[in-house]
Amino acid sequence: MSNLLVILFIALIIGFWVYNRRIQENAFKAAQKACQDAYVQNLDGYVALKKIYFDRDSEGKIRFLRRYQFEFATDGAQRYVGFVVMQGKWPVIVEMEST
Q1: How far is CA 15 from CA 3, 9, 11, in A?
Q2: What pTM, to 2 d.p., does this model score?
C-alpha cells in the first residue's frame, strides 16, 4: 500500500511539472508573437516565472495567475522588459516597455 502511495505521489509531481512546462511554453509563444507584432527581437529565447498570485477577473471571480518576464530589443543593444500574465494555460495580458 505504501509503495502505491509513493508511486502516486511521484506521478502527481511529474504531472504538475509537465502542466507547468506547458504553461511556460504558451507564455513563450505569446511573448514571441508580441515581439513579432511589434517588430522587435526577443532576446534569450525564454520567459522567466516572476510571480504567482490570485486576482479577480472582470466578473469578480478569483483567478490563479502567473506572471512571466521576457526581454526584447529593437537594435540588439538596448534591452527592454516585457511581461506575460497567464490565467491557466491562456495568456490574458502581454505588456512591453515602450522603446
Answers
A1: 18, 10, 6
A2: 0.85
